[in-house]
Every structure is written in C-alpha cells, then in structure tokens.
What does this fold into?
Amino acid sequence: MGLTTNPKPTTDGNTRENSILWDEKIINKLAPHERVASGIAYLPQTSALFHELSVYKNLWIVFECHPTWRKKTKEAFITELEHWLELTQLTKTKDQLAGSLSGGQKRKLEIVRSILMHPRFLICDEPFAGVDPKSIYELKKIFSILSSQGMGIVISDHHVDQLLSIANYVYVILQGAVVASGTAQEILNNQQTREHYLGFQFHQEMSEKFNE
It folds into this structure.
C-alpha cells in the first residue's frame, strides 16, 4: 500500500509519467468522492466547513454520506465523534455554528471530520496557517497520535520549525523541484537548504533545539 507520483510499472504492466499511484492503481482520473472512498482524505488550506451548520452537524454528515459507516451503528459513530471532540477540546462548541469558531477551532474541526472518515492517508495543505500557537501544539499532538496508529500523513506548510519537530521524513521544495530530503537532522545539516531556504540564523536556532 502506498501513494506515489514516481513513474513505475502499473498493474497492467505499463509505465506512465506523472501518474499518481494508490495501491498500485492510477487514480489521476478518479472523482474526488472515489478517492475519498479509497482511503485518501485531503485537508485544504482554505476552510472546507459548512459554516452555516453546527459543529455537530458538520461531523454528522460523515455518518450520513461516507461509505465507511454504511454498515456501522449510529452509537458507534457518536462514541467516536465524542472521543475526538473531547481530545480536541471542541465538546463545548458542538452546538455552535462552525462559522463562529476561531481559526484554530475550525482547523481542529476539519481534522476531526477527516479522521471520522477513517482514511489510510491524510494530505494536509498548510494546516498551521492562521492558527494560534496553542492550537498548533494541539494539532501536532493529533498528527502524532494518528501517525502512531498507522495513518500516513503528508503535510505541506511554511512553518518549518513546527514541521521539523514532528516529521519522520522531510522534503524541501523550491520552485517546484525537490532540492533536499531526509530526516529533520539531515535537512538541518544540508548546506543548500541552510544557505538558500532556512537561513543561517534560523538554522542555528533549530540546531540548538534539536541538540537540547
């Protein structure tokens, strides 16, 4: 199982450039709902919540629409929903309109909704953008929990210090090309990223943190 964009032989024996493979099948032309049903969840940078609905109803949509819950009970869904609301400190907000939440609360709600879809792979675009430091800490904790449970997670974000503190593997992309990859420590030790991306001051501060 895996998600990759590297050209490689597919199940029909052909090699196709610029193909996205998921479980050895090309998914480029799959509709969004088909990709979701296959186990991939995407969290966009801009809010994807239904702002005119309550927090609870934003989550209940998953039970009504996602195929993973078709053969499971409402009670099981509610138990799981309440578990994640409590973990993300959103329980008291469940009757509020999603549009009334803070930026950090909205982001946590979006992640809870994604988790309830039981994805095998979660792609996050700028999850820390516009989020307060406390919520960033909580989001990092959630990502670490999900990763420990076996979920694959890809995060694209400009908060380099936050990413380096939780990432198992890092890619540095400049002008659409991968210029460096490796563990957080390997990225910090990379001269090119130090000179052209991280900057010497930032690099020194992060190196000190990693060596504490």
Remarks:
- Confidence is low (pLDDT under 50) at residues 1-14.
- The chain is about 40% helix and 15% strand.
- Residues 133-148 form the longest helix (16 residues).
- Residues 169-212 form one domain.
